[in-house]
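User: quick one
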Amino acid sequence: MENLLEVKNLKKYFPSPRGMVHAVDDVTFTIHAGETMGLVGESGCGKSTLGRTCIHLLESTGGQIIFDGKDVTTLSKQELIEYRNHVQIIFQDPYSSLNPRMTVRDTVMEPLRLAGKMKGAELEKEATRLMDLVGIEKRFYDSYPHELDGGRRQRVGVARAISLKPKFIVCDEPVSALDVSIQAQILNLLMDLQDEYKLTYMFVTHDLSVVRHISSNICVMYLGQMVETAPTLDLFDRPYHPYTKALLSAIPTVDIHHPHQRIVLKGEITSPINPKPGCRFAPRCPYATEQCSKPDLPLVEVEPNHFVACCRVKEINQL
Amino acid sequence: MADITKSETQFLSVRDLKVEYKLGKDTIYAVNKVSFDLQKGKTLGLVGETGAGKTTIAKAIMRILPSHSLKTLHGEVSLEGVNVLALPESQMRTLRGKRISMIFQDPMTALNPLKTVVDQIAESIRLHQHKSKADARIDAIKMLETVGISADRADVYPHQFSGGMKQRVVIAMALACDPDLLIADEPTTALDVTIQAQVLELVRKLQKETGTSMILITHDLGVVAETCDSVAVVYAGEVIEYGTKEDVFDHPTHPYTIGLFGALPDLKKNVKRLSPVKGLPPDPSEEYTDSCPFAARCPHVSERCHTSKPDSYEISDGHTVKCFLAKEMK
Amino acid sequence: MSETKKNLNENQPRRSKSEKPGSLPYIWNYIKHNKSAMAGLFFLVGLFIISFLTPYIFKYNYRQVDVFLQYLKPCAAHPFGCDEVGRDLLVRVLYGAKYTLSIGLIATAGGGLTGILLGAISGYFGGKVDSIIMRCLDVFQSFPTILLAIAISAALGPGYWKLILACGIAGIPGYARMMRANTLTIRSSEYIEAATSINCPTPKIILKHVIPNAISPMIVLLSMGVANAALVASSLSFLGFGVVPPTPEWGVLLSSGRSYILQYPHMVVFPGLFIMLTVLSFNLIGDALRDALDPKLRN
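Assistant: Done. Structure below.
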């Protein structure tokens, strides 16, 4: 399986009145073609920023992005237009990701119309095919977003994203704003489309049960840093990083006969503005020592393809 | 109608609660003849999706429904024998905050941005316990410490707190007057999962210490599993399944309940495709007087589901289900 | 046998455009029921039509001078009386309506369009572009509107189109500022990000995605703006700028009658009354539009 997206030491900083916000700091990972990489973390960890930076909706501050073998870290205007034909994004909020004044059909047709490759009847036919593919009923083709429920709006977002036949789609919390029963419908749709069109997804979410269902690999982030990355089942069976362990234990389980021991983290999340060097989870970590505030977090491979950014990982897990 | 007896001895007893709103020319049938009980010191989970009517039930118990659009409020809500719905507003005001308290979903908007957190808690104490300003402040600080906020952060404004801390302040406010009944409306939905863990832990601890009974409204079955003793599944303003946690989680009977569990991505199982409940939530302006509201989405639907409305059938002690299939199981 | 009614969205026939909040048919539906707004609308439309039809309705021409009818008080033959050179005031007032109305509308249209574009560009790009545009507009806004209009008018000289230009320019900062605020709100919407992600060129994003969605609050501002522009135009004409006699613009009429206000009040009362009614009508319509477009009141 070849690498579709390689990200090396990616940084994204935002200037703010109180200092530089280190939204994404030194993140490295690889996504293979046809896979789904789950990007998980809680609010403020930088996962949405990372997703947008990879597809050039935001410009990176440092590091390297390699797509399909080509370095796309900096792109000229023409190259950017070309790049966007291969990478797309599905947004979180079905209520603000559609232009309230455009019908479903208009929204779905817009990318193709802008690309200029299709016109007139051919364009209409393709739009109809796309809307059908994502499960939008015929009577809604000319509806406006406010006439649709969240699930249908999200389907429109999906249709728009796949219209240019991209290879890679960033799904930014696509089901978080939907009710549980509708979530399942959209997740199934995304997985079906992936099978049929050999798509590669970066699935950004805070919901661990959803990500377990849909991803082949998972990358856990905390405050802009990547703390652990592993194949999905490995991560859930054997989490190594203290944050991952706490995160997994925090999920309420529906199995009432086997409640698990919950690790309750102390304190609050620290600020991403001008952070101190070293591991940002240290202030809340039950295993922290002074070693943890040294810069340059080591990335330890504890198992094949299972990486952990923790200097004490071997001791903590008795390896 | 199943026999939920001993309403006089239950701590909270809701019988045939009905709430209707008017929206323009239409009527919204928000709550349709809901009945359930709550024992002292226990927690009841009200589960359902958005728009099912759970918040309306809570607001009806507190009698804080918007008066300008309220059309009908029928039924009986007995709090230790007293019908709360029949009380005059003046008496209801003494009840609210003192005996029944509510935590709302969004901590961002539940707090007054212009007052410090200690002032907001002290205000509640002064109103209900008629204490002096100084005494109320001492109590308020104690309450903040109980929820894990140190005294030196008492004179802070809400916007300076994170979401989790704001929610803790809200909990402190709700429990400041030592209420008998606490209604928590999706208290952790807006919070990150690790903060949710902290907050749920806190609520459980406080509940054990004070013996407060609680109604927890949520759409998250995991939260219900961890915190509740009994569960009422709400759909289209009706309680379609009701029982202890073990009853509902181990033996879900109503097709909607089964569907809810099937739609969940499970951390332990590897399922290729999720089995969601097909279709969309029901129209609240529709009154399902002679049909089952779930019929349009039910995988086991039959002719009679469209022509008559199922009652609540008791399939085991205390476990009731509003479905014709349950009738056969009796 | 009762049929289970399907869900809200499933059974609904395709909603016609009139249901879309913010669209023209929707607004019309709403305003139809507002009595004062409809009264205002009838007044304005009626006035505008009559203004063009005066030669066919009345036997007096607006320039017809008759020395014997100087300062004539209102009577049966001349319901509004006559002015200082014996011209029939009723005809002059009605004929003059077209000036006030047209100046108000055209000045607002021009100023509004410019303001909308500037505001949208300023809000969308932010940074240096925003600073430059806003600082320039600040300079304009530091003058009271009337003074600004006077200054521009004095610089340009008298004339119908120059008056329109002055009134239009004086109105630009207000529109630009509001449009900028609306744009900033929309700027952070995800559909704008989505437009970027599908390679929508920036001018198209502004024209197709930003402006149509930011324009609702502007509609109210614009309708009030017409009233304002009409008032400014009349004021300028009253002061001797802009339109000059013998053009029967209402401000000019007021100016001519100013000296005789005690002896022959009819020369001032009638033009003044019409100015007031016109401004009132625009304001009533503007109020109704605001209510029609207010999402909170809709529920």
